[in-house]
Amino acid sequence: MAMEIQLDADDWRGWNADDFPTGSWRRHDGELQAIAGAPRVDLVSRRRYRDFVLRFEFALPIAGNSGVLYRVENDAEQSWHSGPEMQLLDDAGHPDGREPTTRNGALYGLLAAKQETPIEQGEFVNAAVSVREGHVEHWLRGRCVLGYRLDDPGLHARIAQSKFAAFPRFAQATEGFIVLQHHGEAARFRRLSIETPD
After folding, report:
1. How do residues 84-130 score in pLDDT, each as one tens digit?
2. Sign (positive/negative) of CA torsion 112, 115, 116, 117?
3. Between the CA of residue 62 and those of 26, 82, 103, 180, 187, what are the distances in Å?
4. pTM, rounded to two decimals
5. Element holding 156 (H helix, E strand)
6. Which residues contact 173 (CB under 8 A, 6 or more apart)?
7. pLDDT > 70 fraction of the chain, expressed in percent and rounded
8. What long-range pairs does 130-136 form, CB within 8 A, spacing at least 24?
9. Which helix (H) or strand (E) holds 157?
10. CA 140 to CA 122: how far, in whole Å?
């Protein structure tokens, strides 16, 4: 039987830290807010997850950039060295919006979203990441914009030709942490919940 729980600030810690990183993120009015210009410390779930559905809303400033990473290994140097990333981006304002595999909703640097999802400054967008038995889906505004399998040979071929080839553990973990990325801009997250099989 699936179980869904609401996530708040107590469910997150800083990368390579035990506590919530108050120098890089603030808790305000039910939101987790990355502080613009602060040290880029990612938020890491306190629990590890294998199969799950993470639901959330996010808002970005003009040219904003963030992401949600999953099945991250804590002993990697950086979260993106091991965990695949659902890109969250203002496509119109950020240079990454010129490349399909780094636009909003993409599997960062590897697979383009099937549909574009433009956003407005400060507008909250509902989103979800689903990981079930190796099948991953990225959802934006109630639409599945990308689906893929972690064991797909075509994906592995793309990884081998990408910057992730330098990290042999990338996308290999069968369970791991969820990460909210701090990319230097004032990304905001709210209404986070996670559904797990048990």
Report:
1. 999 999 999 999 999 999 999 999 999 999 999 999 998 999 999 99
2. negative
3. 20, 28, 14, 19, 10
4. 0.95
5. helix 153-160
6. 71, 72, 73, 82, 83
7. 99
8. 130/52, 130/53, 130/54, 131/49, 131/50, 131/51, 131/52, 131/53, 131/70, 131/71, 132/51, 132/53, 133/51, 136/70, 136/84, 136/107
9. helix 153-160
10. 16
DSSP 8-state secondary structure symbol assigned to residue 42 = P
Pairing state between β 188-196 and 43-45? unpaired
Does position 1 have pLDDT exceeding 80, yes or no?
no
What does the H/E/C string look like for 59-128? ECCCCCEEEEEEEECCCCCCHHHCCCEEEEECCCCCHHHHCHHHCCCCECCCECCCCCCCCCCCCCEEEE
Residue 139, pLDDT > 80, answer: yes
CA distances (Å), 108 to each of 59, 73, 112, in order? 18, 17, 8
Q: State the number of CA atoms in the 13 A half-sphere of 153 facing the CB.
A: 0
Angstrom distance (rounded) from CA 94 to CA 107: 17
Question: Torsion angle of alpha carbons 109, 111, 115, 120, nearest 10°?
Answer: -20
Using alpha carbons, select from 58, 46, 77 the residue that is nearest to residue 179.
46
